[in-house]
Amino acid sequence: MSQHSRDLSRRRLLLGGAALGAGTFLTACTSNEAQPTQAQTKDVAAGGNAAPGEKVVIGFSAPAADHGWIAAITNNAKAQAATYTDVEFKSVEAGADAAAQRAALSTLIAQKPQVIVLLPHDGKELNAFGLEAMAAGIPVVNLDRAFPDARAYRTQIKGDNYGMGVAAAAYIIAQMKARGVSSPVIGEIPGIDSLELTQERSKGFADTLNAAGFKVQRRVPAEFTADTGQRAASQLLQALPKLDALWNHDDDQGIGVLAAANQAGRKEFIMVGGAGSKKAMGDIQTDNTPLKATVTYSPSMASSAISLARLIGQNKGMADLVELQVPKELVLASETITKENASKYLKFGF
């Protein structure tokens, strides 16, 4: 399958969840149902930078909202824009792949927005568009999937992918030491392997495990969907008759991972998820599956991207900083959610 085809949906709209015996099918609800999760927005207080100012037209594009995390990205962006009376929000369809998104964005440039907020299908393939927009005098806020050329964006905001791997490994290391397991068998199920963000996550995981004298015994990529997560987990579990710990990069694909584990009758390992969906947090709280923790990659970054785009369009800085301009890059920390603190994070889940 081509990268474009695989990247059509970082995770599909899922109708499935837990596995139910042989011939399993996915039936439980995922993070993206008919009713969208309440958007993660920042209250706009009176005065300061939040006070109404010059009107800013913000163009926006992200891959189709056909799964929980991407749906939350678009939902958050729209909702945050609506909190400002001086923001006009113009969204264009991303299309099926990077080429289609590039064509749609060309029509957006012709509308001359003050700023563009863009989550690209693929940062490398859309880098040329970022350069074009910047050259046309339209600042670009690059969201999540990084452009390789710093000249292609005015500001970049993303999650800490390397830090996700570090956090997942740190939790597993602590659990293995607490259980007295000196040579644990550790598995890993990443998402789309061709994406830089996936590679960064795996590197953070491997580097941290190696520093503790541990390593990944088996790594089987999925594609950020429940069905591919189930297939990858089935392969991994067959290859490892004994498993102590597993890191699955994405909570939507984790639904399929848990389905495969249930079908195989495998409960001897602990599992760490990724991103922070409401379903994953619920499973962690209930504590009746191998999933014991998840590491965050919050779609609230889209809300922040809109706020930053507004400030850039109005030639303002961030009120609490001494600097006159919005920073070039912001990286959100990856936090670890466990049974002990899940209740605090539920409102941020997607």
UniProtKB/TrEMBL annotation:
Domain of life: Bacteria
Annotated Gene3D superfamilies: 3.40.50.2300
Keywords of this entry: Signal
Localization per record: Cell envelope
PROSITE patterns (alphabetical): PROKAR_LIPOPROTEIN, TAT
One MF annotation (Gene Ontology) recorded for this entry: carbohydrate binding
InterPro entries from the UniProt entry: Peripla_BP_I, SBP_2_dom, TAT_signal
An example Gene Ontology CC term for this record: cell envelope
One Pfam family matching this protein: Peripla_BP_4
Domain spans labelled Periplasmic binding protein: 58-312
Family: Belongs to the bacterial solute-binding protein 2 family.
Protein name: Ribose transport system substrate-binding protein
